[in-house]
Design a protein that fits this description.
It is found in: Cytoplasm. InterPro entries: Integrase-like_N (IPR017856), TACO1_YebC-like_2nd/3rd_dom (IPR048300), TACO1_YebC_N (IPR049083), Transcrip_reg_TACO1-like (IPR002876), Transcrip_reg_TACO1-like_dom3 (IPR026564), YebC-like (IPR029072). Pfam families: TACO1_YebC_N (PF20772), Transcrip_reg (PF01709). This protein has three domains: 73 residues, Arc Repressor Mutant, subunit A, CATH 1.10.10.200; 87 residues, Alpha-Beta Plaits; 71 residues, Alpha-Beta Plaits (2-Layer Sandwich). Strands 3-1-2-9 form a four-stranded antiparallel β-sheet. A four-stranded antiparallel β-sheet has the order 5-6-4-7, with helices on both faces. It has 248 residues and is α+β, with helices and mostly antiparallel strands.
């Protein structure tokens, strides 16, 4: 789990920088388009769209941008011809990596993602080569300053959560994907702000990464996360705290 947590923390720090470049808005627009295309534009009937719009609002994406993305997804505007693809492979030190892709040109995206893997010393694999190592889970990240662990545990379990874990300055609350809305609503009712809420791919087991390999793994993860067509990156690496401290 530590590997997932390390990357989650790094992603949150990067988000503020990426947002200034408009990169996050671009990715969230794609997520909204796909959600609206597959499930319609009614938030009360489309849970995935609701999550995507909540994420967009969390990074101050303009209302007009959100509405335009929804209309592209429902076909009211052009530009909704996106394809969902899952790329899988191995990075340095045998780390398993999953990339969730939204692209309008798979022939462009595939070689670009393959090159990122190869530069890092990894290799893009066949469909299904690592996906089985991950479980889809609802994940809410709650800053420890918001609430104590016992109180959060009681609240979360009552809302359908499976587990609460302490990671650095945050608590990570896990649940089944279909329980994430109930968990989110329970946290909001208790006036507890989350740093992020998402459907994540959580590794069943982790690979401990050495001090020599850690920079290579993180560099590859950042390169994948920076790619315009990559929506989410998941991996099963575990960087020990003492190694992570030396990298910060």
């Amino acid at each position: 789990m530590a590997g997932h947590s390390h990357w989650a923390g790094i992603k949150h720090k990067k988000a503020a920088i990426d947002n200034k470049r408009g990169k996050v808005w671009s990715k969230l627009s794609k997520a909204i388009i796909i959600a609206a295309r597959d499930g319609g534009g009614d938030l009360s009937m489309n849970l995935r769209l609701r999550y995507a719009i909540n994420d967009a609002k969390a990074v101050s994406m303009p209302k007009d941008n959100i509405e335009r993305a929804v209309k592209k997804g429902t076909g009211e505007l052009e530009g909704g011809n996106l394809e969902e693809v899952l790329y899988e492979g191995y990075g340095p030190a045998g780390v398993a990596v999953l990339c969730e892709i939204l692209t309008d040109n798979r022939n462009r995206t595939a070689p670009e993602v393959r090159k990122i893997f190869e530069i890092a010393g990894g290799k893009l694999g066949a469909t299904g080569c690592v996906a089985w190592m991950f479980d889809r889970k609802g994940l809410a990240i709650v800053p420890k300053a918001q609430i104590g662990e016992e109180a959060l545990m009681e609240l979360a379990l009552e809302a359908g959560a499976d587990d609460v874990r302490s990671e650095g300055d945050n608590f990570e609350v896990y649940c089944e994907p279909e329980s994430l809305t109930d968990l989110q609503e329970a946290l909001e009712k208790a006036e507890i702000e989350t740093e992020s809420t998402e459907i994540a791919r959580v590794p069943q087991d982790t690979v401990e990464v050495s001090a020599g390999d850690a920079p290579k793994v993180l560099k590859m993860m950042e390169a994948l996360d920076d790619h315009d067509d990559v929506q989410n990156v998941s991996a099963n690496f575990d960087i020990p705290d003492e190694v992570m401290a030396g990298l910060e």
